[in-house]
Amino acid sequence: MGDTEDGGGKKQPQISLVGLFLACMVAGGVQYGWALQLSLLTPYVQTLGIPHALTSVMWLCGPIAGLLVQPCVGLYSDKCTSKLGRRRPFIFTGCIIICISVIVIGFSSDIGYALGDTTEDCKVYTGKRLHAALFFVMGFWLLDFSNNTVQGPARALMADLAGSHGPSAANAIFVSWMAIGNILGYSSGSTNDWHKWFPFLQTRACCEACANLKGAFLVSVVFLSLSTVVTMVFATEVPLDPATAKSESDAGEPSGPLAVFKGLKNLPPGMPQVLVVTGLTWLSWFPFILFDTDWMGREMYHGRPDGSPAEVANFQEGVRQGAFGLLLNSVVLGFSSFLIEPMCRKLTAKVVWVMSSFIVCVAMAMVTVLGSWSLGDIGGNVQDAAAQDKGLKSAALALFVALGFPFAVLCSVPFAVTAQLAASKGGGQGLCTGVLNISIVVPQMIIAVGSGPWDELFGKGNIPAFGVASVFAFTAAVAGIVMLPNLSKSSFRAVSMGGGH
Known about the structure:
The protein is mainly α.
């Protein structure tokens, strides 16, 4: 195969398809940790004394990092003249910071104990651990910022290396590694035996649940380290010519977040409507994304992270089952990803998008009903519901599975529609994608700030947020029918987000 020209005008050697697959391995390593973060950290932080109503605020770092870090890192990586290439220095640095932040999170209880949170054994102490919570939140925020530092350059690296394989092949490989990372991460999160396999993880400050989290995260560090080494070896980049970088800088064109906001007036026709529907769609998803495993532990398994030993055990079992549900969801997501393009070619992207929103509407309503039923708010008391526990818990897992298809739509169709609209105008895909990211991070900020206090207002745990999510999903479906542009069936191309944030 021949060579391809990179952004600096130099020839980039054509990489084989196997080499391209190995060059993208870091995406799987990052997603492994992201899956653990989604499934375990909201429940775990409550064991350190942070109340449920405030746990959602902790997730503000994700949208802030997505809004600021990715565009800025993307800008700097475009102009980086390192001998390692444009992307690999940022990937390598970000992965080191991820490993540090994960270790801080995993050992936050031990750090808090050493700083005087308590002198009691974790088996009997149920009070607040403020030092541990502080280090946990610091590690959590650092993890999100470093994740975003890696994800942008990793996506750009695949585009740089794709060559004659084309963007579709690069995207498919990227999504495949995301699916692998999800499956490994959720499998680790649903495992209750890390403390048995590595008994040294248990300490006076860190009991079974904590040791399981610590073990899962330490394994993710090993996998990410391996993934980073493989990517650094196989993703051979041609360094950017310093003269080219200087000429681009001297051109004075705005870049990063500034370019996104300045370019709002140049959006192609139909793009503002896509932004509105995208924002409503993500508003319907974020309550589930942030609180799915916590919902399983509280509402479906009647546990509490700060309750009696029996309640804590029930809560942890629910969290593990939730992680198993996310594992099943990821499997369905992987298979569904291959169906999206044929469906859009047959039905149009608009119909598929609207259909997925209606599915989410029903699913979020069912989550609300199941949670209320399990707690005895519907059809009797908790004791009556307990007799039907097995059926309710099976139904809850079925909802995780059912949401795999609409999640595949969420991760592909809005981006594909955006690419089509940009192409119809003759370019500006970077601008349109950057603006689309705003319609994702703003809903996440709204849910992060509002869902905890909203749930606390009604005193019903996670249930009120899921009820509102159902309303948002219905609104997104109606808005999609009215507002989304009618695009050609034949012109659809699957373009996936390929990431967790």
